[in-house]
Amino acid sequence: MTDQATEGRGGQRGASDQELRAAAPQDVRRHDLRVGVFVLAGIIGAVIALFLMTDPATLRGRYLLVAEVEDAGGIRRGDSVLMRGVNIGRIRGFSMTPGGQIDIIMEIEGDWEIPEDSYTRLAGAGLFGGRTMEIIMGTSDQIVEPMDTLLGLGGQSGGVIESAEALGQTAEDVLSQVRKLLDDTMVGTVRTSAIELQALIEQLHAIAGVQREQLAALTASLGRSAAGIEAAGPDVERILARSDSALVALNRTSVTLERAVGSLDVVLARVEAGEGTLGRLSQDDSLYVNLNHAAVAIGALAEDIQANPRKYVNLEIF
Questions:
Q1: 104, 69 in Cβ contact below 8 A?
Q2: Which domain holds residue 80?
Q3: 97 and 124, same domain (yes or no)
Q4: For position 118, what pLDDT does the model report?
Q5: Counted domains in the chain
Q6: Average pLDDT rounded to a whole number, residues 251-266
Q7: Angle of helix 184-231 relative to helix 233-273, nearest 10 degrees?
Q8: Same structural domain for residues 157 and 68?
Q9: Backbone angles phi, psi at 128, to 5 degrees
């Protein structure tokens, strides 16, 4: 349509785009190229300046924290940072402080807020190697700011590898103890004990055989004794009858003795209660005192009679 329009206006065919470019001055094209290169360089420079002046973590919506520890424990760049079992970041890098401490730089996702009194510790290695940094969450209301330092504990929580190593060490100790138990001396002692035990079992078997024979002989003797008792049946019956009579008489005597003992118990009970003469004598000591005074008076009278017979006996002879 352009060619037709050109032909319609001037009656002649117009120049094409290629012809126009060829007819354009070379300085204009070089100028356009320089402007394009300058704009591209400006964009690259702005991007480089942005990365140099701004931390890449900030561009990704993350912030940096520092964990100060005495020993990094083999943790590597890119290992995970956990808090309550959730992966909230990764290890960004390391630096050595003048005091000999290790600053571990952690890159934390911006969505996670960490209390100011939190602390860190190294977690154990997994099955595929590597370690993790665990943040123990505190209870403070204050939240850490970017590049704040968290205290790092020196100990490490045990991982799968440490547990396997501890289990292997325990198994090795057990095997060592088993080897000590199964040395030549112990094996020889066990073998000797087994031989002695076998000999003892044989002796017990022999003793059991002898006891079995003796029991058989005793059973036979008891059988013969029972047969003899049955043969002497009338005599045994008479003896048993006499024994029954004697037992009846003894029973009667025991009944009589029981009655006498009962009566004696009654008498003694009355005496202890102070009933009757014996009871009064046992309970009241006045009779004893009177008898004692009477004996003393009779003794004094006898002495006086011996000393002064004329006082009591006066005989006159015609």
A1: yes
A2: 61-162
A3: yes
A4: 92
A5: 2
A6: 81
A7: 100
A8: yes
A9: -105, 25
Q: Supply the DSSP string of 215-255, one letter for each residue.
A: HHHHHHHHHHHHHHHHHTHHHHHHHHHHHHHHHHHHHHHHH
Residue 229: partners with Cβ closer than 8 Å, 6 or more residues away: 236
Confirm whether 179 is domain-assigned: no
Question: For the range 136-139, what are the long-range contacts, defined as Cβ-Cβ under 8 Å and sequence gap of 24 or more?
Answer: 137/83, 137/84, 138/114, 139/115
The CA distances from residue 318 to 177, 253, 309, in Å, are 135, 73, 20
Tokens of 196: 């002695």
234 or 298, which is more confident?
A: 298
Lowest mean pLDDT: which of 74-78, 117-121, 183-187, 294-298? 183-187
Q: What gap in Å lies between CA 303 and CA 307, rounded to an integer? A: 6
pTM higher than 0.70? no
* pLDDT per position as a tens digit, 41-71: 888 877 776 665 555 555 567 888 998 888 8
Rounded CA-CA distance 291/285 in Å is 10
Tokens of 76: 């590597």
Cα-only R_g, the chain: 65
Residues 70 and 32 in one domain: no
Contact 131/79 with Cβ under 8 angstroms? yes
Least confident of 72-81, 141-150, 187-196: 187-196
Taking residues 265-280, report their average pLDDT. 71
What are the phi and psi torsion angles at 119 (to 5°)? -145, 170
Is 156 found in the same domain as 66? yes
